[in-house]
């Protein structure tokens, strides 16, 4: 079953950043959906916990040059 989790993201300064973060997330295995909002610096992913975990998701975002932290 897919889980959904919210994260705070740092380092996004324009709309293209949003597109690139969403694109990175959507290409990861186990990600069912990803949305990121520039105005609030918040994002939400829907993911399959048997395929990917939160640490992997944070790592992928940080590898792209942003910061990320799950809210819970
Ligand atoms: Mo916009 Mo984001 O020019 O890394 S793409 S700042």
Short key terms for the protein model shown above:
72 residues; Alpha-Beta Plaits; 32% helix; 35% strand; single chain; 4 strands; binds dioxo(di-mu-sulfide)dimolybdenum; alpha+beta; four-stranded antiparallel β-sheet
Q: Structural class from helices and strands?
A: alpha+beta
Q: Kindly provide the radius of gyration, computed on alpha-carbon positions and rounded to a whole number of angstroms.
A: 11 Å
Number of domains: 1
Largest sheet at a glance? Answer: 4 strands, antiparallel
Which CATH-level-2 architecture? 2-Layer Sandwich
Bound molecules: dioxo(di-mu-sulfide)dimolybdenum
Q: Tell me, briefly, the overall form.
A: globular
SSE order and pairing:
Layout: E1 3-10, H1 15-27, E2 31-37, E3 42-47, H2 54-63, E4 67-70
Antiparallel strand pairs: 1-3, 1-4, 2-3
Bound molecules: dioxo(di-mu-sulfide)dimolybdenum.
What does this structure look like?
The protein has 72 residues and is of the alpha+beta class. It has a single domain, classed as Alpha-Beta Plaits (2-Layer Sandwich). The protein contains 2 helices and 4 strands. A 4-stranded antiparallel sheet has the order 2-3-1-4, covered by helices on one side. Strand 2 and strand 3 (42-47) form a beta hairpin. The protein is globular, with a radius of gyration of 11 Å. The mean pLDDT is 97. Bound molecules: dioxo(di-mu-sulfide)dimolybdenum. Dioxo(di-mu-sulfide)dimolybdenum binds next to helix 1.
């Amino acid at each position: 079953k897919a889980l959904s989790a919210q994260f705070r993201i740092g380092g996004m300064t324009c709309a293209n950043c949003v597109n690139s973060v969403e694109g990175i997330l959507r290409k990861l295995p186990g990600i069912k959906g990803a949305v990121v909002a520039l105005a609030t610096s918040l994002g939400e992913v829907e993911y399959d916990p048997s395929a990917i975990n939160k640490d992997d998701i944070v790592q992928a975002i940080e590898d792209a040059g942003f910061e990320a932290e799950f809210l819970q």
